[in-house]
Amino acid sequence: MGTPTPIKDTETPTEDIDAPHLDAKTRRRLASCIAMAKTRSAAQQDGQSSQSTLPTTREPESLSSSPTAHQRSRPGTPAPKVVADANARLDVLLGKRGIQHFALSPSSEYPTPLTRLPLFPPVKKATARSIVGSGDWVALESRWDGGGVFRSGPGLTVFDEDTLFGLMMMRQQGMAGPADQLPITAPPSHGPAGLAPGNPVRVHALYCLVSQLESVIKGHAPANGWGGRTLSKRRDSIDTLSRVMLKFIRPKGADAFHGQPIHLIFIEYIVNPKDACYYVQFHPLLSQWLEEYRTYIDFKIRRQLSPLGKAIHRALASQRSNGVFDVPIIDFFQSIGASGGVADRKREAIPQLDKLCDLGFLDSYTFTGTGRSVATRLRVVFAKRPPTTDTKLATIADTNL
């Protein structure tokens, strides 16, 4: 055997090894081990960051296998370009799968069947968690539940409803085609009705950065951007919405989804080093309601209200075309999830009803009855508004659920 070639001192730098008690050879080996460990750690991090959780379909191409889901946007890439690039890649994918586009012009629509359900109660997050049992189907009791509505998953609050509103306002893509060819296909549990393979469906979708979503919800964008804590709370809200499922005994205009588990949204996270970018796809039932059974809610008014005020505003908005709305206060509070003593909730509601009058949503309101021998009722008179396009469209909202 030949004599091994000695390792030169210049092959592995040892200046960073602060161990004068070790000889030069040992320090070189230690430095080499540290360098290899750093390389392996960096490789593992890169590998983990490119993984995707999107369900695959029969074709090898999927949203997660496209460059959009794996390619990091470069630091400093403008947010509009990140979203534009993602939409361009989505267009290519949809063309390969035979999915057709249709035009969307979203504004302030909200599904009318959700306006008078206690899905987003005006409570704190900890309270919402305690209300809902883990994994159980819980009845959303309301005078307007259409025969029965049930929910499963984490507890929701008005904060999560703000997130859903914002996502609805940011819809970009209308897609029509077989259910099993959508960018995100339904889980197997959604068959055989509604989302079974081959069933034609229409869905709405979007790409967005969480910072963009936050700006839409708040109505402005701070000069220095949103803080990390703010964006983290909004990301958690998006994830929470994606884990919630509903069951409707008689879903409005959609018999195919009778008793079927319905996700509000499907999501896929897109890697981005500066911000969180999501692909969001609305369930076909919500997409249908946004086209056929919708209520228009003024976001400028909503931003100025408390959580209870937002819940009241949302429920009343679905009745605005009637001009006048009269309802037992117990039924009304139950429909928005305002639990607790009626007297306490009424006292908290009065400042919000006053604000709705000041903001031009209501002309007046009155409470009648003592709450003892005669049940307390809420009667509101809506402010008249000029006949705009949105006003005419708002009349299609079903007020007899």
Could you characterize the architecture of this molecule?
With 401 residues, the chain is α+β, with helices and mostly antiparallel strands. It folds into three domains: 1-49; 60-296, no CATH class; 299-401, Ribosomal Protein S8, Chain: A, domain 1. 37% of the residues lie in helices and 17% in strands. The chain contains 13 helices and 14 strands. It has a five-stranded antiparallel sheet, sandwiched between helices. A hairpin with a 6-residue loop joins strand 9 (265-270) and strand 10 (277-282). The chain is globular. Residues 1-17, 39-77, 188-192 and 388-401 have low confidence and may be disordered.
Outline of the structure:
With 401 residues, this protein is of the alpha+beta class.
Number of strand elements: 14
Largest sheet: 5 strands, antiparallel
Strand order across the biggest sheet? 1-5-6-10-9
**Average pLDDT metric:** 78
Enumerate how many helices there are, as a single number.
Answer: 13
- Number of domain modules: 3
Outline, from the CA principal axes?
globular
Derived structural class:
alpha+beta
| Helical amount | 25-40%
Q: Could you tell me the strand content as a percent range?
A: 15-25%
Order of helices and strands: HHHEEHEEHEEHHEEEEHEHHEHHEEH
CA radius of gyration: 27 Å
The N- and C-terminal alpha carbons lie at a distance of 91 Å
Low-confidence stretches: 1-17, 39-77, 188-192, 388-401
